[in-house]
C-alpha cells in the first residue's frame, strides 16, 4: 500500500474531533515543569491543592514547602540534572518532593515503595540517583541496598510529618498499633521536617531549566525483562499536560466547568498516569487532588470519597470493578462527577456499563505508556456510549499502524500501534540499544501493542504482542476472552494466558475469581461456547481467590503463565 494514502498521512482522526478541539497544541506556555508549578501556586495561592487523611495544604503552602525542600537539596551540593529518587505512596510529602526536585533543577526518579531490595537496587544504580526521599515504612528496604548505590543523601519522612499535631497521633498508630514500620537504620539520614527547616533559611537558586532538560526518569514495568528508565524531558510533560488540558474541555460541552475542580488521586503518583493527569493537569487547573495512600483498602477509600463532591476520577478497570462490588460505594453522591478516565489496561465493557449505570458518568478510555508521558489517545469526554476503543490521537499526536517490516498497513488491518508526538520520550536512560529497537527513523515510538484503526480514526487494541496466544496458527487475544468471561454474572474477574499443547501449539488457559461460589468449570465452558469460536475457548480453567496484580492493579498475566 502506498505510504501516502495511510490513515496517518491523512490524519483521518481529525474529522472525529469536537469542534472546540484544535489539531495542534501550539507553543508551550512554560519553559519547565517547575515554572508551571510556580505559576499555579501564585495564581491559586489560597485554593486547596492536596488533601490526605483529613489534612489539606493550599497552593501557597505547597509553594513554600517545595521551595524549602528544593533549597535543602541544593544545599547538599547537588547540581542541575542530578537524579533524586522519591519512594513514597500518595501522601502530602510526595507532590512536595516531586515539585521540590523539579524546581531545584534536578531529575525525579519515581520509585514504587513496594519494591523488593533487588528491584530498588537496580533502579537506584541504573539511574545513578545521588539522593532519595523515602517514607520510614520502606526505609528497611533501602537499608539493605543503599551501600551498593551512589546514594549519598537520604531524607526520611513519616506519615504524619505535614499533619500538625494530628501527625503525632498518626505516627503513633502507624508505628505501634498497626506496626507498619519495620525497624531500620540509615546512618546520616535527615528527617523530612529537618530538611524543610534547613531549606527555609536558604535561597532556591534558579538553574534556568529548559525544554530539553530531563524532568523524570520513569521506569517501565519491566515486563520484557530488566526495567528501563524512560527519559521524559520537560517539554514531554508540558506537552502532555497541554494536550490533556485541551481534551478535557470536551467534558464540558453543553455544561459549565466547576471553578474548583476536585480530582480523586487513587492511582499512585509514582505511576505516569496519575503523575501527569492528576498532578500536572490538576496543578495547572488549580484543582484539589485528594490523595489516597492505599486504594486497596476499599472501605477506607469509600469513606474518604463520601467527604468530597468530586469531579474527575482517573482509574483502571480493576479499581472500578472493585468499587462497583462495594455496597457503600454504590450509595455515594455522584452528581458532581463529570469525568471518569480509564487507562493502564483495557476497560471491559461490562465494567463500563455498570459504572455508567451506578454513577451516571461514562468511563472514557484513553491509552498511553510511560514512554509517551503517558497519554497518546483518548475517547471524547462528551460521548456517553462505550466505544470499546482507545479513542483518537490527542492534539499534535499521530498514530500509524505498521507491520513487522515497519510499513503502514491498510485501514482496518491489525499491526503494531506506533506513536509520534511531542510527548514521546527522548529515549531510554543509558540504553541506546533498547532505544533503537523502539524508535523508528521517522520518529515513531513502537508501542508493542497490536491494534487497528477504523475509518473514523478510532484505534482498537487487540493485545500486546507478547501476550498473544497462537492456537493452530490463529491469533487469540486474551483481552477478548477476558471481556467475555467478565460479563458472566458469577465472575468477579478473569485472566487468559497461553498454555502449551501438543496438538495446537498453544491453547487458552483461563484463571477465574468467582463471585458465585457454586460456579463450575462446566458453567464457564458452556458460557464461552455461546460467545467464542472453538479455537478461542479456554481448554483449561483454574479458580483462584485472587489474581496477581502490579502495584497499579494491572493483572500480571506473566506470573499466571509461569505458575
How would you describe this protein?
With 563 residues, the chain is an alpha/beta fold. The protein folds into 3 domains: 3-28 and 229-464, Rossmann fold; 57-209, Rossmann fold (3-Layer(aba) Sandwich), CATH 3.40.50; 468-562, GMP Synthetase, Chain A, domain 3. The chain is 31% helix and 22% strand. It is built from 18 helices and 25 strands. The strands form 6 sheets. Strands 7-6-5-3-4-8-9 form a 7-stranded mixed β-sheet. It has a 5-stranded mixed β-sheet with strand order 12-13-14-15-16. Strand 21 and strand 22 (474-476) form a beta hairpin. Helix 2 packs antiparallel against helix 3 (59-75), helix 3 (59-75) crosses helix 4 (93-103) and helix 3 (59-75) packs across helix 8. The longest helix is centred in the N-terminal third of the chain and has 17 residues, at 59-75. The chain is globular.
